[in-house]
Amino acid sequence: MAAGRSRIPATKHSVERFTLDNGLRVVLAPDRSAPVVGVAVVYDVGIRSEPEGRTGFAHLFEHLMFQGSENLEKLAHFRHVQGAGGTFNGSTHLDYTDYWETLPSNALERALFLEADRMRGPRLTEENLRNQVDVVKEEIRVNVLNRPYGGFPWLRLPPVMFDTFANAHDGYGSFDDLESASIADATDFFDRYYACGNAVLAVGGDLDVAEATALVERHFGDVPARPAPVRPDFAEPDLTGERRESYTDKLAPLPAVAAAWRVPDPIGDFENYLPYVVLAEVLTDGDASRLVERLVLRDRTVTSIGGYLGLMGDPFDVRDPTAMVLQAHLPPGGGVDKVLRTIDEELDRLAADGLAADELARTQARMATHLLRETDAVLGRTLQMAVLEQQRGDPGLLGELPRLVGEVTEEQVRAAAATLRPQRRAAVEVVPGGGAR
Amino acid sequence: MTVRTLPPLGPTRKLKLPREVERTLPNGLTVIALRRPAVPLVEVRLWLPFGKAHLARGLMMSQTLLSGTDTMSSVELAAELQKVGGGLSSGLDSDRLMISGNGLVTGLNRLLDLLAGVLTGATYPADEVATERSRLIDGIRMAQSLPAHLVRKALLKRMYGKHPYAVQTPEPEQVEAVRPAQLRTLHAARVRPAGGILLLVGDVQPAKALDAAERALSGWTGDGAPGELPAAPPLEPGPLLLVDRPGSVQSSLRLALPAVPRTHPDHAALQLANLVFGGYFSSRWVENIREDKGYTYGPHSTIEHSVAGSALVVAAEVATEVTGPALLETNYELGRLASLPPKEDELEQARQYALGTLQLGISTQAGLAAVASAYAGSGLRLEFLAEHAARLAKVTRDDVAAAAATYLAPARAVTVVLGDAATVEGPLGVLGPVRTETPES
What we know:
The complex is a heterodimer. Chain A is built from 16 helices and eleven strands. By secondary structure, chain A is an alpha+beta fold. In chain A, the strands form two sheets. Chain A has a six-stranded mixed β-sheet, with helices on both faces. Chain A has a five-stranded mixed β-sheet with strand order 7-11-8-10-9. Chain A is globular and about 60 Å long. Chain A has two domains: 205 residues, Cytochrome Bc1 Complex, Chain A, domain 1 (2-Layer Sandwich), CATH 3.30.830; 190 residues, CATH 3.30.830.10. Chain B has two domains: 198 residues, CATH 3.30.830.10; 198 residues, CATH 3.30.830.10. In chain B, α12 runs antiparallel to α14. Chains A and B meet through α2, β5, α3, α4 and α11 of A and α2, β5, α4, α10 and β10 of B.
């Protein structure tokens, strides 16, 4: 009855890379299967680079980048993208900030113009700053303060796991810090981090390489050259003893827990990092995975469990230090201790006894589907390539990932599981403080 | 500083629709296949009409459909799906049961066999049903602590009264009462090929995909009696309904307005009117309450289509202290568009956005599957997209003005606010009558 091991298909995306004289790195990834393009600009600055007293500033600054630029009034950016039939957004991560548009391909030049204009200089005004501080406060209220499990676990785990301000602080920011941010702060931040030498432009989709190269040079060629700042080392020593904290969430009706362990450097030690990405899926991908079968279906000690790499669920676009996270929601009255003990037990069993005959292969096949599905979308492909270029100088890695995931061995997964010891674990527990209504 | 001017757009690329092939099997199932070969995957969507079903049982059925068959346990089924890079999930709403999946295209036959095994042999084992029952109850408890869920619940009830659409989430005690035998009975009565639509999208030869589906699913038989829903009742404006959530730091603002189905002659004009009002970022309402006043983060206004009716829903989460002013601006922007035609450039911008996002929406396998299955569920095929694009291209300012006067008039709105009543009741009361409720427990 069983089908044999699925062959993991290779996909080959054609990728062109070059660097403009001003230091801007460019990636072009043509794919003419649909008449749409994706444009992404990624700056090498994120939450970890925020100065003390300025929590949430990288994200606030992302908002300011949409508030007008050298040749564009406030609101113009949105109108020009959407009036060309496109969509846009930006997002702030631990190690980078991205800006993107996806549009019908006849609007490619327009998108390049818009991104170049704000790379030369955003229009930073007091009025826009105050307006966007208000908007960001509403964003924090809707995503964190006014809802149960707000910020769990991405804002709650870092202060348990890490000690330095860079790694441990709240990336959304405190209202005090946001309110005291000034135009001078914004100008400094732009000058320091939004240098074209600190950025990558990626364009994917329905484009001709020669034509797109000429357009990129026309619009970005005269952005003044400014070098990238030296990126500090954010390394911290691993935990030597278990850390465990809990907090009461007054809106949450049920308990929850997240546990995390440090993993090898995703960039410098990719070969030893990748088995953890596979391990997270072996443990939690669907009913046939170890922890779902055990904790959800058999013991019924959790109602759901998920596992992923990177505190923001970003296995291939985060730098060291980072973590593997397991996150579970419990039924009423459920005990977190028991859940953590069972996880330890299952990790031990996996490390000692290894995997079942088809367990690794079927997990890898499913991972290949997920990876390929993300690259079907021009935007997903373009953004990932931009970050891979920035952090690794290797945008083509995207096409290699299904194969590389498929080459991870049972021995590597077992070895990874063996490192996830309780004494290296940081855990945070949500104590429910709210009724159901 | 050099003044640079915005480059013009290149020539518009024609909407390119993939070829759609279709076959109705002897058992009554319609199968549609579409080719998009960019990645070696396939998307599967099975749309089964499911109106008027018992809510708690229907939801439990969709939650336990994949919990085991006559030949496989839930874990074995999940493992067999994984082997071909595949996955299946099932979901229910007031109109349909939808089984969605995807996988490596090399595993399509196996994926379809496993799907057929579920459709003809799901067993609803007592143990798994007990597990899923507790999970669903916990999920409902969790949802009941979310402002977005609570305000949605109040809005649906206010919009639909006694219509089945009024309640879309069962109470925990109703789920508690569901037994496996009831699920088997419901499956036998309603999980039927007649009236169902199976959609396959991906790196497939469409004709071969139809053959594969026919081979796998022709053994699935039985007559179904799809539950015909009565038409949704018209909205009845009245006092603003304020649902108390003490201590809330934001208010959830919702307005429901009338809308028409995709096939209605007013649909294209209404879609553009909605965009100009609040349906995208560059709309009057978003520019006003977010970019000018900073009241909110993600306001949006959407036309929702269901089988028995359509509605336009306006939604924003606003700071508690500006709840009154935010509603004032919302009604102002609705009233302004309902009273005066939009400017030419506003209409053009909205039109380009509507046309462009049609292209973007079908540029992935998953997007194409979503659009084609939503259309198929309304009796339409993908070619409707081209017809709709042609209609969007022709809409005039007068058409938008007429649509706005008919559908966006604030006088026709049903308004619900969830928030800290002690703080916001007064400010809302100065704008019109308010009826305050505490959520039922």
